């Protein structure tokens, strides 16, 4: 099975290389970015002798003819243009940007401040939250790979939202992310000197992942009201933690909810529920496709705290993309993704 | 004016040294800890040639006779024992531990799991939240210096709580702290290898600062219900950020609330309110006694997000302790505390 | 092929788990440490659902009977005692400590300040610098797995030492290491608060890896004089860089030396020589068994600068140990070790 | 005494603000950079309410008329152009760039690859290594403020070079720096994601500070031969450590050399010599103008290891600049510079 990667010199792109290089079924056929005509190991010396492929210009016809699937590890706005060139080709597309995620294009305009992709494409795209959309993913041609924050948030919230255990207007998500999510383009705010020994909050109540989370929550439970969503930039390279607060409607205790989560995710090896009294730390999923979840009900307030961690480049981007590709091609979901966490 | 410091080899203790060394009125008379009979610069080489005082054993009589004020930079449980030895001496006490903070000793037992100090001492101790208890602090003999998390939380919440703008059961505090707050005693969880490239949540709904926050909130507004309070360990040395979420009762906008905060803290130079659309980062108060606050109302949810940052060793410990000492001795609050933030 | 690990709860031990878990030939039969009778995932939650084996007490007879090879991921001094219990068993031993490395036990006493293992064991132990002792390793029963600093230093120096291109008294090694090399036992010096935003030099001219480096250099070239060796503690978790300075005897240029190194290591996939004008960074080998080397001759001084980087837990400990096990059991050296670097 | 700062929005510029804001004699008269017409606190929110001055365009006439001294916190190449506009004004200049440092302009061309300032300016500029050029600095009009690496290196080497204790061709300087030295301009190599958990060596044998170090060493001892000089980028914001290796000519021991250093720097409060057996760490001088030095002679090799640390933005830039200004205006050298290190 042949794959192409567009946007290979970004951090999600090079993470796709790391995964696919040792994937037993997918074969990296061609890699593309704007930095053409040099070996990938000139841009990323850590790949020396591992992959010495050249970065090529994009030739839509060749990609369409020669590859079975293409990963778009490109920013929002760019993916739109690529998708529009690729839709007529006989190739599956997995887009890691936000361009195919929002079904209502007016929401895209409002939150992304860019031109949306046309509705016909949106309609046929499948939201690739692997654990929850497996059936649609199997038959999809175009996958909107979920955002990093939505992945951690939605996997953490799904069981209690679906069970309708939560007061619909009470959802607060306090999210923290490492810097690799901000990408490789130099900017003042992501310089070492500015991020180190620091914690910054950004896009308060304005993050473009908000409507993506709400769209999926409402598909599970139509009563869900707008959420409060905050994002913080951590001085770490990899990892996202979402600390989620919800008001419980019923009198539920921690044990019962842990049981619910364990049952819900029993068949989903990438979601691990932590034992009572313990919570996941972001380093404990580093370099893997795991989403680890811890839970605690506070009897004093009737509120449930959900802690969900992922590696933003893996389950939050490249890992889930490969998981979706596995599903699309009928492979076991874990194929090529059975990394142990890099700890310490 | 002569000062003694007990617990000088801890991080709050050595921060007191840094401040008091250049304080124009207070003079460091004696320093104490269990690591006696060595120069402080043997324990902390950065103090070489700056302070070459010996660390001494505790002699309560001498301290009481020779010093005007003693800072207890000691852990909860230890402070209790020291206070009980010092109450009969003619000396003011500023205790940086949690031992004098909770008026209801059953709450101390419940959250600290230790024996409380006797009620007569609790009654006479004054909670040293400098910006709000100035009058009581002026005439106090014993100061319960506030905890690091409560300081950031309470300064951030005070104006809207006092104005009764907030739904009483809606307060959620998502707090993040650097490692210096965990102190200098080696433990597995605070090793570099465990904290670096990591984010950990701890004491979920069980942190001993919870009742301290609630006690003060209820003094401002008796209706306040139990809060939700979470703490995270950041891979930074100094700094606390509290991200606070509250449901507004009235339809208030960001501008109006920024005005309220600016007016409230107009005469309080250590509290800085950030302009609309901007939020403080923890590095921006590093090494200073500032508490910086940013605000945003989300029209979609009617919720207010308050972001409050301090340097946990300064406004969260040693800095506020010296601010309180300044007030107790009739000095300008800023005396010896006019550091500019160390940035970058 | 069955393996046992003693010292599994240390950082090298858990890294062995990470490697061996996905090794296609070796099977983890039993894991041991002093923290017995709990699942490894209680000590290391990142291993939840991956390895749920119990940590067992050491039963030398059972280990000897049931396993084919045992890894001792234990500190110097402890390994000695374990080896003495295991030598009569029919089991291969790979010791990651310094106890079997120095052929002259008086050097061990001088640098380690401990009792040495008996000479008969030292004589039969093989120094497991995989790229250089392959033949002896194949037939060895007991492997002294090299130290982290010696591995980076020796792979960097070997070609020019063997060719006798270097003034024998001119070798200076300025080494820098991450904190995982200091192990998991809490100590003041390895607290996050002490290591972060810091760089410390330690054991100046006194590091116990000095005689290990000199012993091997002299086996390559008997003229070699004592070296200067300094070690620094970096604020990173993983990685060692050695910056090595030597005076060249002949007039050699960078191109010629790069050719020499490429030829020397042509058949050794874990040593990668960087192109002229570029140097390796420690993150570029993170999580892998690579040793990357860069070279530059300064015409002004006639000195050669060699830069060599490894992941101290991999090529500097667990990775090289598995590489040696592969060699001992006739497998391809890379078996189970073909990780791509985790970058970023 | 009125001062102007050009290049105020760079890291050395804002560090000058931090120092000068609390300086008892110098008064910040005007601040300049290319980011004009906004308050400095819009660029650096940590300065809110501390300094609310506007950043102004450069008006050479006004600066010359109204200020007594101007600090050029500008890059090499820019300073040249500014100096040429300012030389006719009645104002002292302290230039933090490399433009005035090299007396031989052909060396500037060779190492900086830029046009040099004209010789008449070079001749009259005084190299502001405060501890060694005090007399010339007193009467200087134009100061070439030393580079960060040269400051740490030269203070560490001076006593043994002047005493001619060192083999002239044996000097090796292995230098490590934090990222603030790389400045505030975004670039790929200084992104958090690239620097974090990493150590990179750069400009091997090609750093432009090499001739600056050699020029001063030769003024102390004409026999000195070219040095070997390497620079590494540390994952820390502030701090430089230089680890210096020299071959001793005579049989000297550590005690004797520590005495020599203590005597040499006895009257120089910013240089602190560490007790035998101990070495400085970079955090121990953070935020101060100290240069701390540790020494060790290795009897096995006859080599001396010198470890010298500074805060690159302080003694390596803004701090030494103010120290020089103090000397130029007849003040005590420590005026406004008596910060205690920020530790932890």
TrEMBL record, chains A, B, C, D:
Its EC number is 1.2.1.38. SUPFAM superfamilies: Glyceraldehyde-3-phosphate dehydrogenase-like, C-terminal domain, NAD(P)-binding Rossmann-fold domains. The active site is at residue 148. Pathway: Amino-acid biosynthesis; L-arginine biosynthesis; N(2)-acetyl-L-ornithine from L-glutamate: step 3/4. Keywords: Amino-acid biosynthesis, Arginine biosynthesis, Cytoplasm, NADP, Oxidoreductase. It holds the Pfam family Semialdhyde_dh. Residues 2-140 form the Semialdehyde dehydrogenase NAD-binding domain. NCBIfam families: argC. This is N-acetyl-gamma-glutamyl-phosphate reductase. It comes from Robertmurraya mangrovi.
């Amino acid at each position: 099975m042949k794959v192409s990667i567009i946007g290979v010199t970004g951090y999600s792109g090079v993470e796709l290389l790391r995964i696919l290089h040792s994937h037993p079924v997918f074969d990296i056929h061609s890699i593309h970015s704007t930095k053409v005509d040099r070996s990938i190991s000139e841009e990323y010396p850590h790949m020396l002798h591992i992959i010495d492929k050249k970065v090529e210009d994009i030739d839509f016809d060749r990609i369409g003819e020669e590859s079975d699937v293409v990963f778009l590890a490109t920013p929002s706005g760019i993916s739109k243009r690529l998708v529009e060139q690729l839709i007529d080709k006989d190739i599956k597309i997995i887009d890691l940007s936000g361009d195919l995620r929002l079904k209502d294009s007016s929401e895209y305009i409002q939150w992304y401040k860019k031109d949306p992709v046309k509705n016909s494409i949106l309609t046929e795209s499948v939201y690739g939250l692997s654990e929850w959309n497996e059936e649609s993913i199997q038959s999809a041609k175009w996958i909107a790979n979920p955002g990093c924050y939505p992945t951690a948030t939605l996997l953490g919230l799904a069981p209690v939202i679906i069970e309708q255990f939560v007061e619909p207007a009470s959802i607060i998500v306090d999210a923290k992310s490492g810097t690799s999510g901000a990408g490789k383009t130099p900017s003042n705010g992501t310089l070492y000197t500015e991020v180190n020994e620091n914690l910054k909050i950004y896009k308060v109540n304005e993050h473009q992942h908000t409507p993506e989370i709400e769209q999926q929550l409402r598909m599970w439970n139509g009563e869900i009201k707008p959420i409060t969503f905050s994002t913080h930039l951590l001085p770490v390279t990899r990892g996202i933690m979402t600390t989620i607060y919800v008001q419980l409607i019923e009198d539920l205790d921690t044990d019962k909810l842990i049981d619910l989560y364990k049952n819900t995710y029993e068949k989903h090896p990438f979601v691990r529920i932590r034992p009572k009294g313990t919570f996941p730390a972001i380093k404990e999923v580093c370099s893997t496709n795991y989403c680890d979840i811890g839970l605690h009900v506070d009897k004093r307030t009737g509120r449930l705290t959900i802690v969900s961690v992922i590696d933003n480049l893996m389950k939050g981007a490249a890992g889930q993309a490969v998981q979706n590709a596995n599903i699309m091609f009928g492979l076991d979901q874990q194929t090529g993704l059975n990394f142990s966490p890099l700890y310490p």
